[in-house]
Every structure is written in structure tokens, then in C-alpha cells.
Amino acid sequence: MSKIDDETTKVAVPVSVPVPARAKLPSVKRIGGWHAIGPIVIFLAILAVVAILTPAFIGGGGLAIIASSSAPILLLALGQAMVLNVGSIDLSNAAIGLLGAILLALTLGPVAGLSPLIVLLATTAFGAVNGLILAYAQVPSFALTLGTLGIFQAVALVASGRTTVYVSSNGEGVHSLYESGIANVPMTFWMGVLLAVALWVLLRYTRVGRGMTAIGKNESAAIFSAVRTRSLKVLAFALSGFAAGLAGIAIIAQAGSASPTGLGSDLLLPAIAAALIGGTSISGGVVNPLTVIFGALTVALVPIATTAVGIDAQAQSLVYGAVIIAVVALTMSRNKSSIVK
Amino acid sequence: MVDKVLSEQGAGSISTTAIRIRESGIERRARFRGLAEPLSLLVALAVLIGVFSLLNERFLTASNFQNVLTQSAIPLIVAVGATLVILLGSIDLSVEGVMGATGMTWILLSANSRGGVDLGPWAWVIALGVALVLGVASGLIFTALKVPSFIVTLGMWYVGLGIATMLYGTDLLPRLEDEGLKGWTSTITFGLPNSFWVALLVIGLGILLLRNTRIGRVTLAIGNSETIVRSAGLPAFRVKVAVFAIAALLSGLGGILATVQLDIGSPTVGSGVLFIVIPAVVIGGTHLGGGKGGILRTVLGVFLLTILNNGLILSGVESSYQSAVTGAILVAAIVFAAWSQRDRLQVAK
């Protein structure tokens, strides 16, 4: 009996004494710091390799090419990061983006300037529907958005009649987003940067943003702290839909047409990879939209870098997969006793 | 202290009886739920079959039945592995990549139109070896480096596709030239297609693994609470690696059979399988959080989706709508399953 008591006190001592707990704090901080600069360091490291091996690429406006090709990925990744931040995942956002592009191509002719607005409203609503079902039926987001992914894909197929939809008229305004730019980088990319800054402000300085991060860190605690978890989750998914709509606009700006199998049809996984390489935690509560920009740039850079290093074009997806695993393994914060699923 | 606890228990014997009654009630309800969910799936299947056979008389013929079984065989094989991984509470997204890599390895080492070597049965061993390496790699990165399985297997999907694309190279399509194997998957033996016999074998072995082996029991336990598994000294690490290896082996087997069925080698031989397999597992009632569910339920899920798609095509529904139907059924199934357990304090990820 007394032995049991002894053992319990022995176990209890290190927990109750505050010194070791305090000693642990700096390491957590250090990981946080690595989180902030990791994505930038990785991007610059890969860029440096490319710059050394093919100096002509950087001189010949290569950075602008990377930035312009990363624009749709960046927009989708920002929306995905918002959803990941509340501890969920949105597998349907790329499909929503593509559907947005098809809707834009269909409506630009008839309603001209109103069309982008309609598309953004529609995609935001699609995202919000995901969020509403998730929040009120309490179903896992992975399965839910996998289901709605199928539905949006089918709607895109039916709306486009399985072919490429070209913008019939009034396409100049949207197209100029890709043609014009600052520092040789198209406006579509700056649109992503602007959205990233806006989301960063939302997450850092507003009650709404802090609440979203709180849900990702510990949803039960957030509920008990009177955080409006349901509305905030709906908002996170609506933002994902909105960002997907912007991605759809970026696709039309770049290609002038949209098809269910063309540009933008396989952006789901690159966008998730961009969000994760950008330091977003897949289990929620850790996100920085500003570093997601570098995540998206890295994802766009990897194919270029593999060619620059002299790796066969056919090995690209192999390198791509290895880089995703390696980068996340390097930048992830983990502690010894945590359970990883 | 112990004595005091014991005496307290003795004094409160009436309340323990109450607790026991309550517990048996919970158990009974759990057993009812365990029966009700597969039953509702069976009813849904029966209704589907009834409706489709009214819509098109070709639906309820033996040849269409065999057709459905051939179509469902590969998703069934892959889904057994996917169920095991999901029971851990993890996810395996790499199936299509593993299928591609294994299928390409196999066809290039078998009799094919590009010539090269014909290793016969050794082609199977080496190809499945590739799958095993990919699976063990996923499992080790997941467990040793603690990278979430979603990301590891997402990366492994690309790695598998990359291997397949490199093997494919820039030469002509490798066409299968083994006359004995051509069309083997859909050949009927004892009334059932060969590939379905393989699937039945895999399902049987999967059920045995889950029910009667240490790996299976620990898999379920990890899904329920990994903390408890670890503190009980059970080999969580090894079991997780083993489950990812088994899942990859089954994806690889699916990849080889899909290559035989397609008759040519292609890196994208597994294209679309993931979107059948994961919805099928979830519709079957296996929890994405792990610990709850089983292989037979997944089998029902795969049948539901295959019969639905087959029936819709026979009823003249355009194939564009297929993914919407799968998606809508998936959403309906999860909402239906979660509806009774909604609670203000419930956490849904």
C-alpha cells in the first residue's frame, strides 16, 4: 500500500515541479521560428541550386515564369491553408476552382463585367455549403469533401459538355490580369500575395482569425471558451471556395479557356503540397499565409529545378513526391509522445 | 487504502448493478448498431438491384453479373488494404502510384511486345517486391519520422507514378504477349471470373488477419487508442509498418491484375481506383478515425458503388454523372451515419 503511494508521488513529482516545464519552452519557440523561416529557406536553397547550374534561367526572367505558373496553386493553397488551420481538409477546392473557371468562360460573353462577381459568389457559396454540412451534420471533412469533389467534377463535366469552353467575348479584362503585371510578374500572382496578406491580417489581428486557429489547436477547448466554432468553420470553407474562385479567374486569365481535363484539372494535390510545404500543419492550428506563398513557389520550382539539375523529365514526379515528404519531414514540429495518424 | 476502496465497492453494490444494467444496455445498442449499419447497406443494395432490373432487363443477366464481379475485383483487392490502413486511423493515398509502378515492372519483366526479358513467375515476385518496398518505405517514414500518413502516402503516390513513368520511358506501349494470360482476369472459372476468385481469396485472408492474428488485433487497438497500445507494450511501430506493407502489396496485386485486364502497360493503370476505394470503405461504415469497421463492410461498399455505376450506364445515364452519384452517395452515407450522434460538444474534423 505504502509502496503504491510512493510510486504515485514519484511519478507526480516531475509533473508538479515547474522547472522542467519552463525549461521546455525555448525548444517549442525554436520550432516555431523554424516554421516561419523553413519554407523560405527551402525555396531559396532550391533556387540557389538552379541558379548555379543554369545561370541563364534566373537572368532570363525565370523567377517571373515561376511566379506566374504558381498563381493558381498559390490561390488554392491559401484557401486550403485556411481549412487546414481549423483542423479540416478541403479535397473539393480544386474542383470548385475548375468549375469556377468553366462558369466564367460560359458567362463572360453574356454578362461581361458581372461574370467574375457571379463566379466568386458561386464558388464562395459552394465552399460555404461544404462548411455548413460539416458543421451541422458533424461529418469528417475528408469524406465529405471527397464526396462533394465528385459532385463538382460531374457538374463541371456537364456544364462544359466534356469539351474545352472558350471565352467568346469580353475576355480582355480578365486576360489583362495575366498580361499586365508588376515587375514582370502577372497580376494573378500579386492577387495571391494580396489575398495572403489579407488572410495573415485576419489570422493575426482579428477575433475571427484567432478563433479559427483556436479551433485547430483544440476544438473542445474552443467550444468551452465560447468560440463560435460552427460559424468559423463555415467561414473557413467559404474562404476556401472564394480563393478557389480567384484561382478559376487566374486560370481563365492565363489560358483564355477552361476544360474539365485541361489547365487546372490536377491542382488539388500540388495545392495541398504547397500549403504543407508553406508550413501549414495538417492537424490544424498552425498556419502562416505569408509562408504559403513560398510553399506555392517551391511547388512551381521543383519541376524546373529537376530539369536544371539534369534529371530526366520522366523522373519529375518521383522527385516531386520525394521533395514533398522530405520538406514536410524537415519542417514539421513534433514531440516524442505525440500520436501521428 | 485498497481496503477502503474495496469496502466502498461493497457498500455500493446496488449502484454497481445499476451500472452493469446501463452497460449491458449500451452493449446491446452497440450490437444493434453493428447489425443495423450493414443491414441498411444490404437493403440499399437490394433496392438498387430491384430498381435497375426493372429499368433494364439486361441488368439481371448472368453475363452482366459476371461483368460487375470483374469490375469490382480490383477495387475489392485494393480496398482490403485500404480498410486495414483506415482502421489504424491513417490513410493510404498511394494506391494509384503503387499500382502503376507494380504494373509497369511486371509487364516489362513478362512476355511483352517490347521484347526484353521474360522472367515468368519471377516477374510477379519482383513486381510485388517493388510494391513491398514502397509500402515499407511509407510505413517507416510514417512511424520513424512521424510524418502524417496523408503526406507520406501523397508523396509515395508521386514516387510510384514517377517510377512507372521512368520504366515506361519513351518507347512504344508494352503490350502483353502471354497468350495464357490475355483475358485471364475475365475468364470464367466455376461460374465466377478469375479476378474475382483472387479478390475472394484476398478478402478471406484479410478477414482472418484482422480477426485471428496479432497484427489484426493490434491494428484495431491502435485505431481505438494508440496511447493505450503503447503503454500495454504492444508492438505499435512494427504493426503500423506491416499494415502499410500489406496495403501496398495488395495495391501492387491490383496493379498487376489491372495491367492484365488492360492488356497493355500504363503508368496510369490505377487511375480512378482511389476515388472508388476510399468512398467504399467509408460508405461501408469504417470510421476514418480508426478502430471501428471491418473488411466485409468494405466489400458491401465496393459492391454498392460498382452496381450503382453499372446500373446507371445500363439505364442510359451519361457517364459524366458517375462521379456525382458516387459523391452524393458518399455524402448521404456519412451524414446518415453521423446524424444520430450529433452533439454540440462533438468534435468533427
Outline of the structure:
Chain A: It is a multi-pass membrane protein. The complex is a heterodimer of chains A (341) and B (349). With 341 residues, chain A is mainly α.
Description:
The complex is a heterodimer of chains A (341) and B (349). With 341 residues, chain A is mainly alpha-helical. Chain A has one domain (40-53, 63-331): ABC transporter involved in vitamin B12 uptake, BtuC (Orthogonal Bundle). In chain A, 77% of the residues lie in helices and 2% in strands. Chain A is built from 15 helices and 4 strands. Chain A has a two-stranded antiparallel ribbon. A two-stranded antiparallel sheet of chain A has the order 2-3. The two termini of chain A are 39 Å apart. In chain A, 52% of the residues are buried. With 349 residues, chain B is mainly α. Chain B has a single domain, classed as ABC transporter involved in vitamin B12 uptake, BtuC, CATH 1.10.3470. Chain B is built from 13 helices and 2 strands; from the N terminus they run ααααααββααααααα. Chain B has helices at 2-11, 13-55, 62-87, 95-109, 121-144, 149-168, 194-212, 214-224, 226-231, 236-262, 274-283, 295-314, 322-339, and strands at residues 188-189, 192-193. Chain B has a two-stranded antiparallel ribbon with strand order 1-2. In chain B, helix 3 packs antiparallel against helix 10 (236-262) and helix 5 packs antiparallel against helix 6 (149-168). The longest helix of chain B is centred in the N-terminal third of the chain and has 43 residues, at 13-55. The radius of gyration of chain B is 23 Å and the shape is globular. Chain B starts with a helix and ends in a 10-residue tail after the last helix. At the A-B interface, helix 6, helix 7, helix 11, helix 13 and helix 15 of A face helix 6, helix 11 and helix 13 of B.
